[in-house]
Amino acid sequence: MNGFLLVNKPVGMTSHDVVYYLKRKFNIKKIGHTGTLDPFASGLLILCIGKATKLADLFQNKDKTYEGTIIFNHHYDTYDHTGTILESKNIVIDQDVLKEQIHQMIGTYDQLPPMYAAIKVNGKKLYELARQGITIKRDTRKVSIYDFKMLSPLKDNAFDFSIEVSKGTYIRSIAVDLAEKLDTFGALARLNRTSIGQYSLKNAHDLEKIEIHDLITLETYFSNYPKLNLNPYMIKLVKNGIYLDERQTTMDCDFVVYDEEDQMIAFYQRTQPNTYKPALIL
């Protein structure tokens, strides 16, 4: 059984909790998730099943959209409402100024990840250090905000928003960075991931209702990718993990290898012109 499941993660569960739940429910040995969601967050989580676990990067590199709520005037150590308040202000925020600052954040900027993050530094995850009360220097990362909108008026120092961002963007840091522009503190009160690339939360399944027939098979996932049919001799080499080159194809993109019976055999990724490596062999 190889493919992907689209799950609507509920608030309160870790992404690992979801993996463990489905592992037991379907008696699956090999399963992993793409793009961690914090326990306080909800929304789309994509699970890779079987040999599809080797394809997690296909989703982690995609743009993502979220909806949520930002609250102002409190600085939380976690950058969200589940943490400890370290400092507070009593700033009155003008809604027009807020709208302008939101608009100005659209684009690319250097973002500082929060200490409560799964990024590894010297083999240690940042959140493991944060829980020990240790704060270390973090490198900024270039991220892009493609769209950022208010979904509700500012009320009681909070507002609802929608946002579309590039891979690796921390929405918690966006809340903090936006507040800084307003000379105050900010944090997330709610976060819901609504899409990963072309996959939408609308097509995801609740954990208690999900069934194995909801699996997106590899054949379905790769149905729009270019195909390369090879003879039995080459198929044997492909199964052994051979790289392909211009002797087989000159495609300028990733593609799927099929045998002469039109059975899917492997997925290849283009690494440079006329050079293709196997990312998945069935």
Automatic annotation (TrEMBL):
Q: Which residues form the Pseudouridine synthase II N-terminal domain?
A: 23-171
Please verify whether the record's keywords include Cell division: no
User: What InterPro entries does the record point to?
Assistant: PsdUridine_synth_cat_dom_sf, PsdUridine_synth_N, tRNA_psdUridine_synth_TruB
* GO terms, molecular function: RNA binding; tRNA pseudouridine(55) synthase activity
What's the catalysed reaction? uridine(55) in tRNA = pseudouridine(55) in tRNA
Record's Gene3D superfamilies? Pseudouridine synthase (3.30.2350.10)
Which UniProt key words apply to this protein? Isomerase, tRNA processing
Q: From what organism does this protein derive? A: Mariniplasma anaerobium
Q: What is its EC number?
A: 5.4.99.25
Role: Responsible for synthesis of pseudouridine from uracil-55 in the psi GC loop of transfer RNAs.
Q: Name the residues annotated as catalytic in the UniProt entry.
A: 38
EC top class named in words: isomerase
What is the recorded name of this protein? tRNA pseudouridine synthase B
Q: Per the similarity annotation, which family is this?
A: Belongs to the pseudouridine synthase TruB family. Type 1 subfamily.
Give GO terms for biological process: mRNA pseudouridine synthesis; tRNA pseudouridine synthesis
Could you name the domain of life of the organism this protein comes from? Bacteria
Q: Kindly give the SUPFAM superfamilies that the UniProt entry links to this protein.
A: Pseudouridine synthase
